[in-house]
Amino acid sequence: MSQPNIPKQFLSIFNNKPLIIQTVDRIKRYFRKNERIFIIPEELKGITHKFVGRERVIIEPMRRNTAPAICLAAKILERNYGDGVIHVMPADHLISTDKNFIAALKFGQKCAAQGYLVTYGIRPVRPETGYGYIKTGKKIGAHRGLSAFGGGDFTEKPSLRKAKQYLKSKKYLWNSGIFTFRIRDILDQIERFIPDVYHGVIRYMQTKKKKYFQYIPDISIDYGVMEKTDTLCVVKGNFQWDDVGSWLALERYFKKDKNRNVLIGNAQGVEIADSIMYTYGIPLKAYGLRGVVVVVGPRGVLVCKKDRVQDLKTLLK
């Protein structure tokens, strides 16, 4: 759903409001302005300022995935404020209710204060092949209806057969990509498991030379740290969560017509079925399609079979 220059957090597809604004609205009653910080790559500085210009930001000199971004933010926060607990969350997810989400974060904060690296798992409601899964281990805590478990195996984007097994087993949760940990704890674990990231960030901060950030490995915090640490804690969230990471998400939030089509904007079709048609304003007309996604925007047109939507990231790189 994203494009490199306009990621999906800036789109107003869901709830008629950009996801980045929904994220701010979700947390602003619980975290003061000086406690909210966006971590963004340099090329998104302008568009981010347009949407949330009054929010604080930390600028990555270039995109290097979540581990370098979190390491950079943690080092800057440690330098400015010392140790403390931080929550890390994407700005492009759909979450409800806010009350349940914040309750899970508060419980996660208690776990992080005990030295755990916390991630939040969501009970699967369908066999989803586009999400990561995490297996829950032994129960290690509970608070007001929330439970925390030791972490087991991670699985990234399983086959449909495995996703159905995970749903049936009730031992696997969707990996939400939301984290809570103490600054010092996550930095220690990054230095332990991915030292090239840790020392690369330090060199960049000391020199402010972009080349040192460029040399840092492109690696996620899940793969680099969370899958390896022995202090992982999984809080089972009781909030609704969707990363709306593909155009198929529209089928979950918009009404289908009698032929199982989702038509959004000035879109019309004849003899089409089981398809998604979305236009930003340019008239879209289609004939004789089945199982296809068609997206029309001011910068281009996207056409893809529905069963290949998960592979679109390769095309858009």
UniProtKB/TrEMBL annotation:
CDD domains: GDP-M1P_Guanylyltransferase (cd02509)
MannoseP isomerase/GMP-like beta-helix domain sequence ranges: 268-316
Domain Nucleotidyl transferase: 6-258
GO terms of molecular function: mannose-1-phosphate guanylyltransferase (GTP) activity
Pfam family, one: NTP_transferase
GO BP term (any one): GDP-mannose biosynthetic process
Annotated SUPFAM superfamilies: Guanosine diphospho-D-mannose pyrophosphorylase/mannose-6-phosphate isomerase linker domain (SSF159283), Nucleotide-diphospho-sugar transferases (SSF53448)
Protein name, entry field: Uncharacterized protein
